[in-house]
Protein backbone atom coordinates (compact mmCIF):
# COMPACT_ATOMS: atom_id res chain seq x y z
CA UNK A 1 0.00 0.00 0.00
CA UNK A 2 1.18 3.50 -0.72
CA UNK A 3 0.44 5.16 2.45
CA UNK A 4 -1.59 6.78 5.18
CA UNK A 5 -4.06 5.65 7.83
CA UNK A 6 -7.22 4.36 6.13
CA UNK A 7 -9.68 6.59 7.97
CA UNK A 8 -7.70 9.81 7.62
CA UNK A 9 -9.45 12.38 5.45
CA UNK A 10 -6.81 14.47 3.64
CA UNK A 11 -7.00 18.27 3.75
CA UNK A 12 -7.33 18.21 -0.05
CA UNK A 13 -10.73 16.61 0.46
CA UNK A 14 -11.87 18.48 3.56
CA UNK A 15 -11.17 21.92 2.09
CA UNK A 16 -13.50 21.19 -0.82
CA UNK A 17 -16.27 19.49 1.16
CA UNK A 18 -17.27 22.43 3.36
CA UNK A 19 -18.10 25.00 0.64
CA UNK A 20 -19.82 22.35 -1.49
CA UNK A 21 -22.00 21.35 1.44
CA UNK A 22 -22.86 24.98 2.11
CA UNK A 23 -23.93 25.40 -1.52
CA UNK A 24 -26.02 22.22 -1.36
CA UNK A 25 -27.72 23.44 1.80
CA UNK A 26 -28.52 26.76 0.10
CA UNK A 27 -29.96 25.15 -3.03
CA UNK A 28 -32.06 22.56 -1.20
CA UNK A 29 -33.38 25.03 1.38
CA UNK A 30 -34.57 27.31 -1.42
CA UNK A 31 -36.27 24.43 -3.22
CA UNK A 32 -37.94 23.22 -0.03
CA UNK A 33 -39.29 26.67 0.78
CA UNK A 34 -40.54 27.07 -2.78
CA UNK A 35 -42.41 23.78 -2.98
CA UNK A 36 -43.82 23.73 0.56
CA UNK A 37 -45.79 26.82 -0.47
CA UNK A 38 -47.35 24.76 -3.25
CA UNK A 39 -48.26 21.84 -0.99
CA UNK A 40 -47.07 21.07 2.56
CA UNK A 41 -46.85 17.36 1.69
CA UNK A 42 -43.84 18.18 -0.50
CA UNK A 43 -41.78 18.94 2.60
CA UNK A 44 -41.19 15.26 3.33
CA UNK A 45 -39.49 14.13 0.08
CA UNK A 46 -37.37 17.29 -0.02
CA UNK A 47 -36.37 16.81 3.61
CA UNK A 48 -35.39 13.21 2.86
CA UNK A 49 -33.28 14.31 -0.11
CA UNK A 50 -31.64 17.06 1.93
CA UNK A 51 -30.70 14.67 4.74
CA UNK A 52 -29.45 12.10 2.25
CA UNK A 53 -27.19 14.60 0.50
CA UNK A 54 -25.90 16.44 3.56
CA UNK A 55 -25.41 13.70 6.14
CA UNK A 56 -23.23 11.32 4.18
CA UNK A 57 -20.76 10.99 1.35
CA UNK A 58 -17.05 11.58 0.94
CA UNK A 59 -17.29 14.50 -1.58
CA UNK A 60 -14.63 12.84 -3.74
CA UNK A 61 -16.11 13.86 -7.07
CA UNK A 62 -16.21 17.57 -6.20
CA UNK A 63 -12.64 17.27 -4.88
CA UNK A 64 -11.22 15.79 -8.08
CA UNK A 65 -13.11 18.35 -10.16
CA UNK A 66 -11.92 21.19 -7.88
CA UNK A 67 -8.22 20.31 -8.03
CA UNK A 68 -8.24 19.85 -11.80
CA UNK A 69 -9.94 23.24 -12.04
CA UNK A 70 -7.30 24.84 -9.78
CA UNK A 71 -4.52 23.11 -11.70
CA UNK A 72 -5.89 24.41 -15.00
CA UNK A 73 -5.78 27.98 -13.68
CA UNK A 74 -9.07 28.44 -11.83
CA UNK A 75 -9.67 29.93 -8.39
CA UNK A 76 -11.38 28.26 -5.44
CA UNK A 77 -13.96 31.07 -5.14
CA UNK A 78 -15.25 30.63 -8.69
CA UNK A 79 -18.99 29.90 -8.61
CA UNK A 80 -18.70 27.56 -11.61
CA UNK A 81 -16.60 24.94 -9.82
CA UNK A 82 -18.68 25.28 -6.65
CA UNK A 83 -21.92 24.68 -8.56
CA UNK A 84 -20.33 21.75 -10.38
CA UNK A 85 -19.24 20.20 -7.08
CA UNK A 86 -22.78 20.52 -5.73
CA UNK A 87 -24.14 19.08 -8.97
CA UNK A 88 -21.89 16.04 -8.58
CA UNK A 89 -23.26 15.37 -5.10
CA UNK A 90 -26.85 15.62 -6.30
CA UNK A 91 -26.12 13.34 -9.24
CA UNK A 92 -24.50 10.89 -6.86
CA UNK A 93 -27.62 10.97 -4.68
CA UNK A 94 -29.70 10.16 -7.77
CA UNK A 95 -27.43 7.21 -8.59
CA UNK A 96 -27.36 5.79 -5.07
CA UNK A 97 -31.10 6.10 -4.42
CA UNK A 98 -31.90 4.36 -7.72
CA UNK A 99 -29.15 1.79 -7.14
CA UNK A 100 -30.67 0.86 -3.78
CA UNK A 101 -34.05 0.30 -5.44
CA UNK A 102 -32.52 -1.91 -8.14
CA UNK A 103 -30.49 -3.90 -5.61
CA UNK A 104 -33.27 -4.13 -3.03
CA UNK A 105 -30.89 -2.76 -0.40
CA UNK A 106 -32.28 -2.17 3.08
CA UNK A 107 -29.62 0.16 4.49
CA UNK A 108 -27.38 2.97 3.27
CA UNK A 109 -24.98 5.00 5.43
CA UNK A 110 -26.26 3.27 8.54
CA UNK A 111 -29.90 4.28 7.91
CA UNK A 112 -32.86 2.70 6.09
CA UNK A 113 -32.64 3.30 2.36
CA UNK A 114 -35.00 5.88 0.89
CA UNK A 115 -37.37 3.33 -0.60
CA UNK A 116 -37.50 1.38 2.67
CA UNK A 117 -38.25 4.49 4.71
CA UNK A 118 -41.23 5.34 2.49
CA UNK A 119 -42.38 1.74 2.50
CA UNK A 120 -42.62 2.03 6.29
CA UNK A 121 -44.58 5.29 5.97
CA UNK A 122 -47.10 3.48 3.75
CA UNK A 123 -47.87 1.09 6.60
CA UNK A 124 -50.05 3.82 8.13
CA UNK A 125 -53.68 2.76 8.65
CA UNK A 126 -56.08 3.18 5.70
CA UNK A 127 -53.38 3.79 3.07
CA UNK A 128 -54.11 1.99 -0.19
CA UNK A 129 -51.94 -0.02 -2.56
CA UNK A 130 -48.74 -2.01 -2.06
CA UNK A 131 -46.21 -0.57 0.39
CA UNK A 132 -43.22 -1.87 -1.59
CA UNK A 133 -44.35 -0.24 -4.83
CA UNK A 134 -45.11 3.01 -3.04
CA UNK A 135 -41.67 3.12 -1.41
CA UNK A 136 -39.83 2.31 -4.62
CA UNK A 137 -41.91 4.76 -6.64
CA UNK A 138 -41.25 7.63 -4.25
CA UNK A 139 -37.54 6.81 -4.13
CA UNK A 140 -37.32 6.88 -7.93
CA UNK A 141 -39.03 10.28 -7.98
CA UNK A 142 -36.69 11.68 -5.31
CA UNK A 143 -33.72 10.39 -7.28
CA UNK A 144 -35.08 11.97 -10.46
CA UNK A 145 -35.54 15.24 -8.61
CA UNK A 146 -31.90 15.16 -7.48
CA UNK A 147 -30.79 14.69 -11.08
CA UNK A 148 -32.90 17.62 -12.28
CA UNK A 149 -31.44 19.85 -9.55
CA UNK A 150 -27.96 18.72 -10.60
CA UNK A 151 -28.60 19.54 -14.26
CA UNK A 152 -29.91 22.98 -13.37
CA UNK A 153 -26.68 23.75 -11.49
CA UNK A 154 -24.78 22.92 -14.68
CA UNK A 155 -26.75 25.21 -17.01
CA UNK A 156 -24.16 27.99 -16.64
CA UNK A 157 -21.27 25.78 -17.73
CA UNK A 158 -19.86 26.19 -21.21
CA UNK A 159 -20.71 23.78 -24.02
CA UNK A 160 -17.50 21.77 -23.56
CA UNK A 161 -18.14 21.24 -19.85
CA UNK A 162 -21.82 20.46 -20.39
CA UNK A 163 -20.84 17.90 -23.03
CA UNK A 164 -18.60 16.11 -20.54
CA UNK A 165 -21.37 16.28 -17.95
CA UNK A 166 -23.81 14.57 -20.31
CA UNK A 167 -21.24 11.97 -21.35
CA UNK A 168 -20.50 10.96 -17.76
CA UNK A 169 -24.22 10.52 -17.12
CA UNK A 170 -24.51 8.23 -20.13
CA UNK A 171 -21.49 6.23 -18.96
CA UNK A 172 -22.97 5.92 -15.49
CA UNK A 173 -26.22 4.47 -16.88
CA UNK A 174 -24.36 2.13 -19.24
CA UNK A 175 -22.27 0.82 -16.35
CA UNK A 176 -25.34 0.37 -14.17
CA UNK A 177 -27.09 -1.62 -16.89
CA UNK A 178 -24.10 -3.94 -17.24
CA UNK A 179 -24.02 -4.35 -13.46
CA UNK A 180 -27.72 -5.27 -13.25
CA UNK A 181 -27.33 -7.65 -16.22
CA UNK A 182 -24.27 -9.33 -14.70
CA UNK A 183 -26.04 -9.74 -11.37
CA UNK A 184 -29.03 -11.39 -13.07
CA UNK A 185 -26.84 -13.77 -15.06
CA UNK A 186 -25.05 -14.82 -11.89
CA UNK A 187 -21.51 -14.66 -13.24
CA UNK A 188 -19.30 -12.66 -15.56
CA UNK A 189 -15.76 -13.07 -16.79
CA UNK A 190 -12.96 -10.91 -15.44
CA UNK A 191 -12.85 -8.64 -18.51
CA UNK A 192 -16.56 -7.84 -18.24
CA UNK A 193 -16.32 -7.32 -14.48
CA UNK A 194 -13.55 -4.77 -14.98
CA UNK A 195 -15.57 -3.02 -17.69
CA UNK A 196 -18.51 -2.72 -15.31
CA UNK A 197 -16.22 -1.27 -12.64
CA UNK A 198 -14.80 1.23 -15.12
CA UNK A 199 -18.12 2.58 -16.38
CA UNK A 200 -20.32 2.27 -13.32
CA UNK A 201 -17.91 3.91 -10.92
CA UNK A 202 -14.33 4.52 -12.06
CA UNK A 203 -14.90 7.06 -14.82
CA UNK A 204 -17.76 8.76 -13.02
CA UNK A 205 -15.92 9.10 -9.72
CA UNK A 206 -12.48 10.29 -10.81
CA UNK A 207 -11.66 10.55 -14.51
CA UNK A 208 -14.71 12.54 -15.63
CA UNK A 209 -14.68 14.95 -12.65
CA UNK A 210 -11.06 15.72 -13.56
CA UNK A 211 -12.02 16.31 -17.19
CA UNK A 212 -14.89 18.52 -16.11
CA UNK A 213 -12.62 20.65 -13.93
CA UNK A 214 -10.40 21.43 -16.93
CA UNK A 215 -13.38 21.82 -19.27
CA UNK A 216 -14.91 24.53 -17.08
CA UNK A 217 -11.95 26.68 -18.12
CA UNK A 218 -12.00 25.57 -21.76
CA UNK A 219 -8.70 23.69 -21.35
CA UNK A 220 -9.83 20.09 -21.71
CA UNK A 221 -7.93 19.43 -24.96
CA UNK A 222 -4.72 20.50 -23.26
CA UNK A 223 -5.14 18.29 -20.20
CA UNK A 224 -7.36 15.42 -21.39
CA UNK A 225 -4.68 12.77 -21.93
CA UNK A 226 -2.51 13.43 -18.84
CA UNK A 227 -5.58 13.65 -16.60
CA UNK A 228 -6.85 10.34 -17.97
CA UNK A 229 -3.49 8.71 -17.34
CA UNK A 230 -3.95 9.65 -13.69
CA UNK A 231 -7.72 9.28 -13.39
CA UNK A 232 -8.34 6.03 -15.27
CA UNK A 233 -6.17 3.71 -13.15
CA UNK A 234 -7.18 5.50 -9.96
CA UNK A 235 -10.85 5.14 -10.88
CA UNK A 236 -10.36 1.40 -11.25
CA UNK A 237 -8.54 1.29 -7.92
CA UNK A 238 -11.48 3.14 -6.34
CA UNK A 239 -13.99 0.56 -7.52
CA UNK A 240 -11.77 -2.39 -6.57
CA UNK A 241 -11.54 -0.95 -3.05
CA UNK A 242 -15.34 -0.64 -3.08
CA UNK A 243 -15.54 -4.34 -3.96
CA UNK A 244 -13.31 -5.24 -1.02
CA UNK A 245 -15.38 -3.07 1.34
CA UNK A 246 -18.64 -4.53 0.01
CA UNK A 247 -17.42 -8.01 0.91
CA UNK A 248 -15.12 -7.57 3.90
CA UNK A 249 -15.89 -4.04 5.15
CA UNK A 250 -16.77 -2.99 8.69
CA UNK A 251 -20.50 -2.20 8.68
CA UNK A 252 -20.01 0.45 11.37
CA UNK A 253 -17.88 2.35 8.86
CA UNK A 254 -19.50 1.48 5.53
CA UNK A 255 -23.06 1.88 6.80
CA UNK A 256 -24.14 -1.32 5.04
CA UNK A 257 -24.39 -4.91 6.30
CA UNK A 258 -21.21 -6.98 5.92
CA UNK A 259 -21.29 -9.06 2.75
CA UNK A 260 -24.08 -7.18 1.00
CA UNK A 261 -22.31 -7.54 -2.36
CA UNK A 262 -22.33 -11.32 -1.85
CA UNK A 263 -26.07 -11.35 -1.08
CA UNK A 264 -26.74 -9.23 -4.15
CA UNK A 265 -24.42 -11.26 -6.39
CA UNK A 266 -22.48 -8.26 -7.66
CA UNK A 267 -20.33 -9.20 -10.72
CA UNK A 268 -16.97 -8.02 -9.37
CA UNK A 269 -13.39 -8.85 -10.40
CA UNK A 270 -12.94 -10.22 -6.87
CA UNK A 271 -15.59 -12.89 -7.47
CA UNK A 272 -14.43 -13.59 -11.02
CA UNK A 273 -10.90 -14.37 -9.83
CA UNK A 274 -12.16 -16.54 -6.97
CA UNK A 275 -14.43 -18.51 -9.32
CA UNK A 276 -11.59 -19.13 -11.78
CA UNK A 277 -9.29 -20.47 -9.05
CA UNK A 278 -11.79 -22.33 -6.86
CA UNK A 279 -11.74 -26.05 -6.32
CA UNK A 280 -14.87 -28.02 -7.27
CA UNK A 281 -15.91 -28.04 -3.62
CA UNK A 282 -15.34 -24.28 -3.29
CA UNK A 283 -17.35 -23.64 -6.47
CA UNK A 284 -20.35 -25.36 -4.88
CA UNK A 285 -20.19 -22.84 -2.02
CA UNK A 286 -19.63 -19.91 -4.40
CA UNK A 287 -22.89 -20.76 -6.17
CA UNK A 288 -24.73 -19.44 -3.12
CA UNK A 289 -23.60 -15.92 -4.03
CA UNK A 290 -26.66 -13.87 -4.97
CA UNK A 291 -28.86 -15.44 -2.29
CA UNK A 292 -30.48 -12.60 -0.28
CA UNK A 293 -30.90 -14.79 2.81
CA UNK A 294 -27.19 -15.48 3.33
CA UNK A 295 -26.49 -15.34 7.06
CA UNK A 296 -23.30 -14.42 8.96
CA UNK A 297 -21.95 -17.97 8.82
CA UNK A 298 -22.58 -18.18 5.07
CA UNK A 299 -20.85 -14.84 4.51
CA UNK A 300 -17.89 -15.96 6.61
CA UNK A 301 -17.56 -19.18 4.60
CA UNK A 302 -17.54 -17.21 1.34
CA UNK A 303 -15.01 -14.74 2.74
CA UNK A 304 -12.70 -17.63 3.63
CA UNK A 305 -12.86 -18.91 0.05
CA UNK A 306 -12.08 -15.46 -1.31
CA UNK A 307 -9.01 -15.46 0.92
CA UNK A 308 -7.95 -19.05 0.21
CA UNK A 309 -8.14 -18.65 -3.58
CA UNK A 310 -5.89 -15.60 -3.36
CA UNK A 311 -8.60 -13.41 -4.94
CA UNK A 312 -8.53 -10.81 -2.17
CA UNK A 313 -4.72 -10.64 -2.19
CA UNK A 314 -4.67 -10.16 -5.96
CA UNK A 315 -7.22 -7.36 -5.82
CA UNK A 316 -5.26 -5.65 -3.02
CA UNK A 317 -2.13 -5.92 -5.16
CA UNK A 318 -3.99 -4.49 -8.16
CA UNK A 319 -5.22 -1.55 -6.06
CA UNK A 320 -1.67 -0.72 -4.98
CA UNK A 321 -0.30 -1.06 -8.52
CA UNK A 322 -3.04 1.07 -10.05
CA UNK A 323 -2.57 3.76 -7.40
CA UNK A 324 1.17 3.82 -7.98
CA UNK A 325 0.52 4.13 -11.73
CA UNK A 326 -1.79 7.08 -11.14
CA UNK A 327 0.65 8.86 -8.84
CA UNK A 328 3.45 8.35 -11.35
CA UNK A 329 1.27 9.95 -14.05
CA UNK A 330 1.17 13.19 -12.05
CA UNK A 331 4.73 13.86 -13.27
CA UNK A 332 3.30 14.58 -16.73
CA UNK A 333 0.54 16.99 -15.67
CA UNK A 334 1.56 20.63 -16.02
CA UNK A 335 -0.07 21.84 -12.79
CA UNK A 336 1.40 23.89 -9.96
CA UNK A 337 2.65 22.15 -6.83
CA UNK A 338 -0.49 22.64 -4.72
CA UNK A 339 -2.98 20.82 -7.01
CA UNK A 340 -0.44 18.09 -7.75
CA UNK A 341 0.11 17.50 -4.03
CA UNK A 342 -3.65 17.46 -3.52
CA UNK A 343 -4.15 14.86 -6.26
CA UNK A 344 -1.36 12.74 -4.77
CA UNK A 345 -2.99 12.86 -1.34
CA UNK A 346 -6.38 12.00 -2.80
CA UNK A 347 -4.89 8.99 -4.59
CA UNK A 348 -3.46 7.66 -1.33
CA UNK A 349 -6.82 8.19 0.35
CA UNK A 350 -8.63 6.31 -2.43
CA UNK A 351 -6.23 3.38 -2.06
CA UNK A 352 -6.52 3.08 1.72
CA UNK A 353 -10.08 4.20 2.52
CA UNK A 354 -12.21 2.06 4.84
CA UNK A 355 -15.67 3.39 3.92
Overview of the structural elements:
- This protein is an all-alpha fold and 355 residues long.
- The protein has one domain: Farnesyl Diphosphate Synthase, CATH 1.10.600.
- The chain is built from 16 helices and two strands.
- The protein has a two-stranded antiparallel sheet.
- α7 runs antiparallel to α8, α8 packs across α9 and α9 runs parallel beside α16.
- The longest helix has 29 residues.
- The radius of gyration is 21 Å and the shape is globular.
- The chain starts with 10 loop residues before the first helix and ends with a helix.
- The relative contact order is 0.13.
- The N terminus is likely disordered.
- Keywords: Magnesium, Metal-binding, Transferase.
- Its cofactor is Mg(2+).
- GO terms for molecular function: metal ion binding; prenyltransferase activity.
- InterPro entries: Isoprenoid_synthase_dom_sf, Polyprenyl_synt, Polyprenyl_synt_CS.
- Belongs to the FPP/GGPP synthase family.
Secondary-structure topology with pairs:
Layout: H1 11-36, H2 43-54, H3 60-71, H4 79-103, E1 107-108, E2 111-112, H5 114-121, H6 131-153, H7 159-185, H8 190-215, H9 220-248, H10 251-254, H11 260-264, H12 269-277, H13 280-286, H14 296-308, H15 311-329, H16 337-352
Antiparallel strand pairs: 1-2
Amino acid sequence: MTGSAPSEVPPALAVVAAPVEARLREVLAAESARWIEVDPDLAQPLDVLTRFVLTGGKRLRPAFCHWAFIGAGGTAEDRAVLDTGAAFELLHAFALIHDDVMDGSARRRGEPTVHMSFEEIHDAPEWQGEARRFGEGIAILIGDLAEVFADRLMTGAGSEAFGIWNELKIELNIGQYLDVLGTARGSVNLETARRIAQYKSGKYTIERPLHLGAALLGRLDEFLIPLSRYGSPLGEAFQLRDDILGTFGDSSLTGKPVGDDLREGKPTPLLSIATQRATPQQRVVLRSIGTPSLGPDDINELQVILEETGARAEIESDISSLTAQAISALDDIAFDVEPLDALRDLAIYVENRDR
